[in-house]
């Protein structure tokens, strides 16, 4: 039971990342009909918002202290982050909580990026074949990767979780199992809760706000909504920007789990597109359900007991499940008739 619960937590953690990216992909496809292969790059850009914010607040002020000397007899250099020098304890708090605080930077940055991407490029491909959309957005993703590689280098850049949530929690002891039987990193649990909150927020926004209701109506019948005098295109642009924010926030909070580099977005993009297809193109609940389902299956497939019997199964389990599901249900778990069938 303890092994089962540990793998389940691992699967939910991975599934949260898959579901967040797939949710944004599905929002874009469901509203605009665009297959956006640059969506993984938005995840990457969000991660590097966290990196940039950390680099900014950890810029160091160097002071020569003549009263102290090094082992070689030279005056000692005292290095202090400007944030700490200027704001004292609050500056130390900013440095410690740089990852979650960088959300404040990531939200406006990703909104602007999403708006510029949709208005500057995506809108010109609304009525073009999906193959054209894939080619142009994939090309954009490669360009963004190279920009990040040029600015930040090719190596992963580790980001630290706040001190309060570093280390691991003894979940086994909390649940009445033997102490130390189920030990799980605090930050991964934070990420799981964060994913659930963002997903719930997106669904609540679409379900219970007037704006969301109009967007859902536009997803079902764009022409009729337009005939009612509603500028549905403007709302879809906002939805694209919101999808960019969702992907960016997923990237921000994932940085302490996996140090970001310039190709992290592409790694998640491929898996997330599989998630979208399995869940059903255009289905938001399907994307979320498939994200968590495939994350859990991948986690259990990575167990040594399973890999001893089926070597490498953890690398292909998602694709095997996708093949099986699409053979049984060609539209995916919750796909709608007519989507991608013309």
TrEMBL record:
Regions crossing the membrane: 20-53, 94-114, 134-152, 193-215, 236-257, 269-297, 309-328
Keywords: Amino-acid transport, Cell membrane, Membrane, Transmembrane, Transmembrane helix, Transport
Main location: membrane
GO cellular component: plasma membrane
GO molecular function, one term: transmembrane transporter activity
Gene Ontology biological process terms from the UniProt entry: amino acid transport
Bilayer disposition of the protein: Multi-pass membrane protein
Cell compartment(s), UniProt: Cell membrane
Keyword Iron-sulfur in annotation: no
Keyword Transmembrane helix: yes
Entry-linked InterPro entries: ABC_transp_permease (IPR001851), BCAA_transport_permease (IPR052157)
Stated family: Belongs to the binding-protein-dependent transport system permease family. LivHM subfamily.
The name this protein goes by in its record: Amino acid/amide ABC transporter membrane protein 1, HAAT family
Organism taxonomic ancestry: Bacteria, Pseudomonadati, Pseudomonadota, Alphaproteobacteria, Hyphomicrobiales
């Amino acid at each position: 039971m303890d092994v089962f619960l540990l793998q389940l937590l691992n699967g939910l953690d991975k599934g949260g990342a898959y579901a967040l990216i797939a949710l944004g992909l599905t929002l874009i496809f469901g509203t605009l009909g665009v297959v956006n292969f640059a969506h993984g790059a938005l995840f990457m850009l969000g991660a590097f918002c966290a990196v940039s914010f950390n680099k900014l607040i950890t810029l160091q002020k160097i002071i020569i202290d003549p009263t102290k000397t090094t082992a070689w007899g030279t005056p000692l250099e005292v290095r202090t982050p400007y944030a700490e020098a200027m704001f004292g304890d609050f500056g130390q708090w900013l440095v410690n909580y740089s990852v979650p605080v960088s959300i404040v930077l990531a939200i406006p940055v990703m909104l602007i990026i999403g708006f510029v991407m949709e208005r500057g490029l995506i809108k010109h491909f609304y009525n073009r074949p999906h193959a054209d959309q894939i080619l142009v957005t994939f090309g954009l993703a490669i360009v963004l990767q190279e920009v990040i590689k040029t600015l930040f280098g090719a190596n992963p850049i580790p980001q630290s979780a706040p001190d309060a949530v570093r280390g691991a929690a003894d979940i086994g002891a909390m649940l009445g199992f033997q102490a130390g039987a189920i030990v799980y990193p605090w930050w991964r649990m934070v990420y799981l809760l964060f994913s659930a909150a963002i997903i719930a927020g997106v669904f609540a926004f679409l379900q219970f706000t007037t704006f969301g209701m109009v967007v859902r109506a536009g997803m079902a019948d764009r022409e009729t909504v337009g005939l009612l005098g509603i500028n549905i295109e403007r709302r879809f642009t906002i939805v694209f920007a919101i999808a960019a924010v969702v992907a960016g926030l997923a990237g921000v909070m994932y940085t302490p789990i996996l140090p970001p580099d310039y190709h992290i977005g592409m790694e998640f993009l491929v898996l997330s597109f599989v998630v979208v297809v399995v869940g059903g193109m255009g289905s938001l609940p399907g994307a979320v359900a498939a994200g968590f389902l495939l994350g859990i299956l991948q986690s259990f497939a990575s167990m040594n007991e399973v890999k001893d019997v089926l070597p490498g199964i953890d690398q292909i389990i998602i694709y095997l499940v996708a093949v099986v599901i699409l053979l049984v249900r060609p539209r995916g778990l919750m796909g709608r008739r007519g989507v991608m069938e013309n």
